[in-house]
Amino acid sequence: MNRSFRWSGNFSGWRDVFLQILINSIIAGSVYSLLAFGFTLIFGILSFFNLSHGIAFTVAAYISYVIRIKLHLALPVSIALSILFTPVAMLGVYGVAYSPLRKRRAPSWVFVVASLGVATFMEALITFIFGSDLVSLRTGETRPGYLIGSAVITEVQLWTIGVSIFVMVLLSILMKETKVGKAMRGVANDGEMSGIVGINIEKICLFTFGLGAALTAIAGNLVSLEQDLFPTMGQAALLKAIVAASIGVGGSIPGALFGGFLLGVVENFGIWHINASWKDGIALALLILFILFRPKFFGGETER
Amino acid sequence: MAVLYHTLIMAGIYIILTTSLNLVAGYTGLFSFCHGAFYAIGAYAGALLTLKLGFPFWAEVLGAAFIAGIGGLAIGCPTLRVRGGYLALATYGFAVIIFTVLNNWESVTRGPLGIRNIPHVKLFGMTFNSLWSFTLLVAFFVFITIFCLRRLVGSSFGKVLLAIREDETAALAIGKDIARFKVASFSIGAFFAGIAGTLYAHYVRFIDPTAFVAQESFLVYSMVILGGRGSMLGSVLAALLLVVLPEALRFLGLPSFCAVQLRQMIYGALIVLIVIYRPQGIMGKVQRF
What we know:
The complex is a heterodimer. Chain A is mainly α. Chain A contains eleven helices and two strands. Chain A has helices spanning about 15-45, 55-70, 75-105, 110-130, 155-175, 180-190, 190-195, 200-225, 235-245, 255-270, 280-295, and strands spanning about 145-150, 150-155. Chain A has a two-stranded antiparallel sheet with strand order 1-2. The longest helix of chain A is centred in the N-terminal third of the chain and has 33 residues, at about 15-45. The relative contact order of chain A is 0.20. Chain B has a two-stranded antiparallel ribbon with strand order 1-2. Chain B has helices at about 1-25, 35-50, 55-80, 85-105, 105-110, 130-155, 155-165, 170-175, 180-205, 215-225, 230-250, 255-275; strands spanning about 120-125, 125-130. In chain B, about 75% of the residues lie in helices and about 0% in strands. Chain B is globular. The mean pLDDT of chain B is about 80. Chain B is mostly helical. At the A-B interface, helix 3, helix 4, helix 9 and helix 11 of A face helix 4, helix 10 and helix 12 of B.
C-alpha cells in the first residue's frame, strides 16, 4: 500500500515530479478500485460492513508466499492457486462465523462485531504461523523500470494497471450480461422481491462473498509482487477499500473506479509537500470530509 | 506480588475505559471505534499538562479529561449524522487520525520517541510511587467512574439514551433532541476515557503512540460486547477477564510471542462465539436481537 514517492534527485522540475506522482496515483488507484469493488459488493448484497475484508488480502499474499517460496512453484501457478484458495478459505470463515448469524437474521451491527472478531482471530493466527517479521515474495534481482519522460514505472506496476483494467471489464460484463450478475443486482436492489421471483438468495450471497474475496486476492497478489508481506498488511487494505468504496457510489463499478482513483490521487499528491507518514491521515480526512458534506449518501437522513 | 498489582492496575484502567464506552456503545447503541483515541488524548494531555505547565495532579486529571471530552464533542457533532457501519468507520478514522497526529506532531508529542519521565502522582503531600499505593489510586477512580456512570444511566438522561438505542424514531417522536443526547453521551464517555489515559501515563511513566493504536479501541469495544450492552457489571467482568487472561496465559509457560498471539486468537474467537451463541453478552438482559 505504501508506494510512497521517493525523491531521487534526478528530476529537473516540478513537471517531472508531477508526472511521477500521477503515475503513482494511477497504480495505487487501480489497486484501490479492486479492493473497493469487492467491499462494496459485499456491503450492497449482504448488507454486511465487512471488517474482515482485509484478511482476504493477507491470506492471499501468504498463500502465494507458501506456494512460491516454500513449495518452489512458478509465479503464475502461485498466483492462480492463491486466487483460487483465498475465496475457499473465506467461504470457510463465512460458514463458521457469518452463516449462523444470517440464519438468525441478526441486525447488521452484529455482523460488524463478528467480522471484527474474525479479523482479530485470523491476523493472530497468521502471525502465529508465519511470525511477525517481513517476508518477501520477490526472488532474484529487481529489474529496472521503464522511463516515461523522466518518471519511472516498473514492469510489475504496468501489470498492476493492466490486470485491474482487465478485471474491471470482466466484472462489468459479469454484472450486466450474465444471469448470476443480474441476480446479484436484483438482490442488492430488493432482497425480498428477488426471493419471491425465485432467486436463491443464500447462493447469491455465497457467490458474492467468494467473488469479493477473489477480487481482494487479486489485489493482494499484485501488491505483494512489489512489497514485503507482514501479518497486519490487510488492515491498510481494508482501510483503503472502505474509504474508496465510501467515496464512490456504493455497488457500481464506475463508483469503485472513481473512489479508488480519487483516493490514489489525493493520497499521492497530498504527500508531495508533507511527510509520507501522514498518508493514512489524509485518506481518512478525505473520508470524513465526504461524510460531512454528503451525509445523505452515508445513510445520514435515509435509513439503510 | 508485583504481577498481581500490575494486573489490578491495568484491570482498573480497562474497567474505566469499558464502562465509559458502555455508555456510548451499550446504552446509546452507537458504534464507537475511537475510544482508544480519547484514552490517548487523555494520556498525552495529562503528561503534557504536568510536564510543560506544571499542573498539580487533580487539575491535570480534570484538564486531561476535559480535553478528551472536547475531542468527543469534535468527533461527535459531525459524525453522529451517520449510522451503522459508516459511524464505525468515521470513528475508526478519527482514531487513526489521532494516531497519525501523535506520531507526526513532533514539536509537541515528540513523535515516535514518546514522552519520558512522567512524574509520580503527588496528592495531599503524598507521593504514589509504590505499586500498592497506585493500585489504591486507580481503585478510587474506578469507584468514582462507576458511581457517576450508574447515577447517569439511572437518571432520565439514561432512559433517553436507552430509548435512542431501542427506537430512534420513537425517541424523536416524543420530542427528544436525539443528536444532543448522542453527542452528550459521546463526550461523557470520552471524559472518563481521558481519566483512564492520565492514570495510564502516570503508571507507565513513558508514553508513545504505539500504546494507542486503533486496536486498542477494538479491544475496548469487544469488552463492552462481551460484557453485554447496557450492563455496567458485565463491562467490569469482561474487562477483568480480558486483562487477567493474558497474565494467566503467561503462567502456562508459553514463550511471550506465542502468548500474545494466542491471546489475540482467544479474543477474536470469544467475540465470534459471543455474537453467535450469547448475543446479549455475559450480563446483558436485552433479548431483542
